[in-house]
Amino acid sequence: MPDRASTGTPRTLRKVSTTITPDAAGAADTPATDAPARRFGRAARFVRPAAALLSGALLYLSFPPRPLWWLALPAFALLGWTLYGRRLRAGFGLGYLAGLGFLLPLLVWTGEEVGPVPWLALAAIEALFVAAVGLGVAAVSRLPWWPVFAAGVWILGEAARARVPFGGFPWGKIAFGQADGVFLPLAAVGGTPVLGFAVALCGLGLYAAVRPVLHHRATGTLPRGPLAAAALCVLAPVTGALAALPLVSDAPEDGTATVAAIQGNVPRLGLDFNAQRRQVLDNHAARTRELAAEVKAGTKPQPDFVLWPENSSDIDPYANADAAAVITDAVDAVEAPTVVGAVIAPPTGKLRNTLIQWEPGEGPVATYDKRHVQPFGEYIPMRSVVRLFNSDVDRVARDFGPGSAVGVFDLAGTRVGLATCYEAAFDWAVRDTVTHGAQLITVPSNNATFGRSEMTYQQLAMSRVRAVEHSRAVVVPVTSGVSAVIRPDGEIVAQTKMFTPDYLVEEVPLRSTKTPATRLGTLPEALLAAVAAAGLGWAAARSVRARRARP
């Protein structure tokens, strides 16, 4: 019998070294098989970053003037896939890319007249909040019911962005892109935080529902628990929106009021529109006198009150008798209380962006000073530093100061809440007027410095959401467009064209019922922030336990 060794079959298995030196590896591999693999590996690195940018772009496309609100759902689904299971550092980076994809196109109007530097700087800073959200979503993505915690993290990020720095910048809240969406009734339940949470939860739930299906195709087993949780994350927001429909009503509770909104237009676009401020004042006075002539002719109904926009008189009527005479003449002609947007320039101290209640035959009887003035627009923080990057800061030669009192005017028996332009983006600024008795809300605005950009449509969508949130009609008079009258259910019943002199006269319902959102105030946002904090704390505890368990 031959020896087994002589046949090439060893009696015992020996370890064989498989170490290949770099030179040997290069010699052994053939370009035909290795080059495509290397190219695929390099390309795969960019898949998630590209997906993060795409998710942000889809969020942008879901905002007005496009009626594509539903794109927010695949945007969050794609963001969920991008961040699921990622390390914290990767989550931060991918979140930052998503923020840039979203905010760069959304905020391009901020550089309309001052160049790209302020726009790029604002988008880059605001995207840091989305980056922090990406880190948080990555952290909670391994938890049971992770879409709930992840949606809470998104709302926590929005809450932070609405408060810091310089008083916050809530532009781009997910809720503001949902004025045409099926989730809109949830604004009446818990305001913009609940509405935004529902959209994020539904989108993330869509991805969570797809994951078990993909797992089934790969392994042949279907994890029923995660699939049921994901399905509930999708169905609960939709069901909640349907259940909230009875809260959306435009039925009059305190009768109706006939309101007129004046759009006088500006002599030219851009930052120099107020160089001809007398022309702007004359434009609004002329449109008001035209309305008065139509009322006397019987072709237009007599308005109970008239609303002029922000900056309709950049000449201080308290200091300039000629400007006061122009306003008085127009108000007396239309024979109705009129709200005039004016710049008040006291001899010392800061300017005031003021709304004045001007009564026919009496003149000015009440004022409201804008409480949240716009940083880098109405005042310049860190002026000496900002000047190094953009000399346009000196166009704001004198800073505006904020008011402190809530604005509610009694106009011919109707209590009208006042939120000036930028204030409409802040939950508290609008809610305060309703809790102080407003039966109708007005948002006088001036968008002339932003040209024909999407800004005016984004701001109009905010007012539509506010109408449903507080069940109040909202009237938006704007210097250059788009002015609009919105019913309490969010429907626009009349609007103007951009940069066109015009006026709107509509009968609107007056309401006094307070929605749950009005009554609850910041409580829903605080509860959702607590959900996010609980998820982040749970994820951190699991991570600590996992590290301690390692040998």
At CATH level 3, the topology of the largest domain is Nitrilase/N-carbamoyl-D-aminoacid amidohydrolase
Architecture (CATH level 2) name of the largest domain: 4-Layer Sandwich
Structural class: alpha/beta
Shape: globular
Rg (C-alpha, Å)? 29 Å
Q: Number of folding domains?
A: 2
Number of helices: 16
Uncertain spans:
1-30, 270-274
Question: Going across the major beta sheet, what is the strand order?
Answer: 5-4-3-2-1-12
Distance between the termini: 51 Å
Q: How many strands in all?
A: 12
Strand content: 5-15%
Largest sheet: 6 strands, mixed
Q: What pattern of helices and strands is seen along the backbone?
A: HHHHHHHHHEHEHEEEHEEHEHEEEEHH
Question: Can you give the helix content as a percent range?
Answer: 40-55%
The CATH superfamily label of the largest domain reads: Carbon-nitrogen hydrolase
What would you call the quaternary organization? Answer: single chain
- Name the CATH class of the largest domain: Alpha Beta
- Mean pLDDT over all positions: 90
Domain CN hydrolase: 257-510
Pathway: Protein modification; lipoprotein biosynthesis (N-acyl transfer)
GO biological process, one term: lipoprotein biosynthetic process
Subcellular location: Cell membrane
